[in-house]
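Hello again, I could really use a second opinion on something today. Take your time with it, there's no hurry, and the full record follows here:

___
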Amino acid sequence: MQAEKHLFATTPLLGSILRKRAVERLFSSNSREAAVSLAGAVEERHPEADAILRRLLLLQHSSQPVMHSALWNYWKASRFEELLKRMHASATLQPDLLQALEAMPENDWGNGLLFMLWSLLDRDDIAEKIDVKGRHAPALEMDALFGLVRGNPGRYLDLEDPDYSIFEKAWLAASGAQRQRISTTVLKSQDPRLVAAYDHAVKEGHDPQLVIKALKLCGDHDALLDRLHGLPFTCALEVIAFWEEGGGRPKSFSKKAVVEAAVALYRELAELLPQSRPSAPPGTRDIFSFWTQRHRSDELLQQDLSSPDPFRQAGALFSAAQRGLVPRNRMQEISLNGTWSEKLALQYLFTVPDASSRQEHVCWLQPQENIVAAILTTRLPGSLEESSLLDERVHAGAGAPDQSAQLQRKLLHLLRLLQGYFLRGLITVDSNDDATEKNAVETEELTDVDW
């Protein structure tokens, strides 16, 4: 108590001496209370705060276990806020921190502290200390996070994770920069199980194109076909082109049959496609390819989505919508009330706005009734109602011999082939009350849809 009383002594001439004596008594007491008092003094801007902190970091668990444990538990309770603040402010303290972490006891308590500080600081020198001693975090999700961020997927793949909950927790604990590195690890791994865990666990928080690319690399064609569910039809065309060019096929007989039929239709479709447009004039770049290139980083994408610059915002919207990261209701709202640059981005990808929207002050080059655009922007599998509507619009001009009409019919045929795969065994529920028995179920064959 006497030592704590003089810890902040300000008596003229004697104040400095009293403070130093108080600090020495507290360090020599080897008690929990002393460790907390000294850590508190650092937080309260003690005149010798840096010197006290350095001595605290040099405490050894082997020789002063009570003070050492109390100190690090105290810091952990506030997620090391004061410690990290001082580390960022003073480079001279960082070697002391690294030495303190290296000397952490190799048990669950010590490893837990070490991995927690690694995740907060994300420093390679701390990670190297972990790797050298072969340490593992007591929490499976933290151990998996470390491996995934560091490009060592084995730390995760060695674990049993049938429902992908460990991967999901690791993803939720990761920072934005760490998620980028996890995505790279998944892509480079070419491991079907890791790709499946990534795709299942992170749901809307990732780029679905990365999953498509990873599945292509690892040659999992069965999963590649299933992954088209929920993606725009344009993405399906890119994957079918991959199958057509590379020759890979699913192992499942039924899936292989679907892919073979899709490739055959794609080859017919390719002959009907219009010639590619001329490249941009010298010294200029196509704005849509520029936007796609610019927003490869998720962090920059999120930053530009809230940018005051309307073209940066529009570019981020274009890239996010292209990757399936923007909810449909949000796109519909923007197509009606957004800026003209945002509408430009969506008009290039989608047929918007609908007929009930107010009169536009911009004359869009893409017709609002473009059937091809409506087919291309359908998210697989689409609904039966959407399919029937498209069918009516296409067959309204069924007799037209021109190339455009043939293209429409061929695209619709390919779309319905994929719908037939994804909607097989579809069950619908209505309010029919004709049943004579309680809990009765009425079944009927769907005869008016030709897959």
Notes: Confidence is low (pLDDT under 50) at residues 352-356. The radius of gyration is 31 Å.
